[in-house]
Prior knowledge:
With 603 residues, the chain is an alpha+beta fold. It is built from 21 helices and 19 strands. Strand 1 (19-24) and strand 2 (30-36) form a beta hairpin. Helix 9 runs antiparallel to helix 10.
Amino acid sequence: xxxxxHIETLLKTLPEKPGVYRYFDMDENILYVGKAKNLxxxxxxxxxxxxxxxxxxLLVKKIADIKTLVVDTEYDALLLENNLIKQLQxxxxxxxxxxxxxxxxxxxxxxxxxxxxxxxxxxxxxEYFGPYASVTSVKTLLAFIKENFPLRTCTLxxxxxxxxxxxxxxxxxxxxGTCKAPCxxxxxRDEYDxxxxxxxxxxxxxxxxxxxxxxxxxxxxxxxxxxxxxQEIKEKIESLEKYQAKSMVVSNTIEELDVAGMVKxxxxxFITYFRVVKGAIVASQSVEVxxxxxxxDSDILLYAVYDMRTELQSTxxxxxxxxxxxxxxxxxxxxxxxxGDKKILLDLSIRNAEQHxxxxxxxxxxTNPEEHTGRILQQMKKDLRMKEEPVRIDCFDNSNIQGHHAxxxxxxxxxxxxxxxxxxxxxxxxxxxxxxxxxxxxxxxRRYSRVLEEQTGMPQLIVIxxxxxxxSAACNSLQKLGLLGKITIIGIAKRLEEIFYPGDPIPLYLDxxxxxxxxxxxxxxxxxxFGITHHRKKRSKSTITTELNEIKGxxxxxxxxxxxxxxxVKRIKETSLEELExxxxxxxxxxxxxxxxxxxxxx
Length: 603
């Protein structure tokens, strides 16, 4: 089928991450909500496969826009899809009306609290944990807790008064060891509450300690040759390893709020907005806002929040954001969380705003490459504190093995892309032994003295693969040539990706996700690859042709031609003069033959 151009661009820039996708028609009506382990593969399949189902073919024809929301796991995608389908009721989705879909663990609000799983939450002050991926995960966790922290399962009223009146007697659970009988004062309230505290810690995600303890039990059974018990424990471990303690898209501690995550790139802001109702994300919107004059971050945030609250018809009284704006809306409070469920939701929205930024830049690179390049160069100029955009970047890397076969490589990027025709190798001439600093000084001097002599284009940025020592050596050469200070030069140290400037002892640390750092790493890695490839060829050539090169009058080219034909020096020694002449010609063949035969040859 023919794919519309704008849809094709969207498909090329989708993230390969788990998440939820939404399809819209030309009138921006929601058509379908789906989940995916890999958004790019799943969404693309709708447009690249032949569909037997006529309803599916009709859906694909109607798709005019695609929006995605990225999450951490496939399970979170399942939960989010479930929430959105219930809220939006898309035409092409199955109808989901029952909200008792997923199991929760309930810690009942009562003296000596009970712990059990349920699909129904009741507002009685009890604590709920989840939702969980499956009943099996919940039962495995509860079975482990019951085995290690005996809790009561009865529904008796264990108030202090009732216990004091001695109205109860120990039941079967006490006699089989699954309860310590707090009903007859054989377990104190403090001891029971201590177990509850440890259980809550486990439920909230400290699964590592649980799995370690289970593995010890499994190993103990194995040592005692009790393999059936060991297998049971192994199955529990496997179930717990798949278990996810808490979903980031559903929380029982939040009633209603909005979340605004924002990231900034130059004068453009990317904002992802969540509407959360009864602890679940029920709507989301991602927007791009460009600064026109001198608007502050606060101005942009408030503008976007007002617009998206109207779009999503939100009436929540609380908005979670990365910072407090300079003014607020009537009857609405902003909140900047430091931890907890609200912080998890904020981080998720920021991550989606960042993904929205990446997707937009990818789309721009496909549809308007010139504007995309200009944006990158402008960002690099800003990040690296340069006076002009780095249209041309030269990068240098040295390579040698134990001081032998020293070479240096120069790679070039023009408009933030490799310009492979400009790549150069340098065989080091004046340096003896493994002296990386002296090598760098020689190569930089040779390169830019030639550029000055031939009046070819100077780079705006020079990148040196190395730290302060290599950078200082390169600066010495630029100083001799009168270029120091006229060209921006930096060194990049591999260990922490530190950026060094001449004369500045404090390195610059760029954001690990920034395009500027990614381009510097790319050109550095290209220089390393290009240098190593040349170095291997030179080392191989030197090693293989040494004996042939000892023959006066035999060039490297002739030696390589002979080796290519006869595969080894040994076979060349055993070859007749006539055979050698066919490859190297009469004069050179005689030189080779005489060398190996001690001057005895036939005419």
